[in-house]
Fold this sequence. Notes:
Structural class: alpha/beta
Strand content: 25-35%
Oligomer: single chain
Amino acid sequence: MLIKPVILSGGSGTRLWPLSRQLHPKQLLPLVGEHTLLQDTILRLSDMTSVAEFVLIVCNEEHRFLIAEQLREIDAKADALILEPEGRNTAPALTLAALSLHKIDTTVIMLVLPADHVIQDQASFQQAVQSAAQLAAQGYVVTFGIVPDHAETGYGYIEQGERLELFAEGYKLLRFVEKPNAAVAQEYIASGRFLWNSGMFMIRVDVWLQHLEHFNPNMLHHCEKAFAGGKADYDFYRVDGEQFKKCTSDSIDVAVMEKLTSEGMNQLHKAAVVPLAAGWSDVGAWGALWEIGKKDSHGNVIKGDVVNISCRNSMLLSNHRLVTGVGIDDLVIVETADAVLVAHRDSVQDVKVIVESLKQQQRTEHISHRCVYRPWGSYEEIDSGERYQVKRITVKPGAALSLQMHHHRAEHWVVVKGMAKVTRDNEVYLVAENQSTFIPIGIKHRLENPGTIPLEMIESAGAYRSDRAGAGRARLAVLDQGAKC
């Protein structure tokens, strides 16, 4: 019985803005420890002998290099990184994974995990996985239900039925219910029959495809077309975007699970739930991160350069600058280089409304941070104006930028750490710390790091134009969208 981890990494985490951005969402951030949420998702499976060493990840095309780098950092291996040209929710994503695995072994058991969950009790989680695998091997579609410790209104619920014979940890899955109000949530908890819906599943490849063909043949058709029309691109697999975008945007629950339970428990449609008590959180909003965070004696979660006086039950996170708080209660304050969030802990679910407002205003703070990651390293905007932009560029050891030429701007590079290897037309030379070089307009150039430590440099970029007297001089200009950095 082989278990294949299928990790769905298509979320955007808008309620964790300003840390989580469209191009760097929450699953790719180290929110609760040394590793990112994606890395933790993989690492908690690493010592399970029944789980395949190679994972399969379905992710947004925009995140492909970040995810590849994060796998490299923890020495994790992937069968494939399947790229979605556009997010269509979890059911189409899982179907792409199933189609990929179907070519190898139709009876492989998929352990379907969102990339952005926190699980604090790894041993209990692994035990639940082994129990669920026994059910999945017998053709059950299995979900994990989180044993609730309070009446939560932010989660959907699962009603469990009788214990399944021969499966000590498995129960019949009776129904899914939407997020309740406070009174209904309290009734659910009091009944002892309801669990939180975790969004984690175990299911055989052939069983998923059979159910999807029965309940949603149109989705299966477009996913098959998209996968068949795709192509390999190094470690990535790009599906056909036109076909994939024709899929309805449905979750696994909506596409299959709710229909399974509505048709009843019979031999064809078998749905089960395995209870899980393992310190789980989907880190859906800042309140959830405060709940699981390490608190001081006054209930505060503090990270970064923070000074607090008489603060209670608050979260203060600093990433770049000093953050101070005096006499505040139940607040969330998050500082980044280009945005600061201040919210009451009871209102943090509405942070997504801020993101929608930024979109409507056609701003960019919801899309990316000032620091943007690339396969070769990263760059961060330091300053910009109407006709100039200054950036800090970091190049990993042994990495290089592509050979390129710009028709409308010149670049001035100053090395502040490490050694740069510069190609400028037919010249190739080294630039050491505290040295600089100039790249005129129209000159082919390349930047490389030949050293063993990260190369750090400052780049100012601009265009040449003649003034009224006819003397040429440098004018700094804003970089074109999609340029080198």
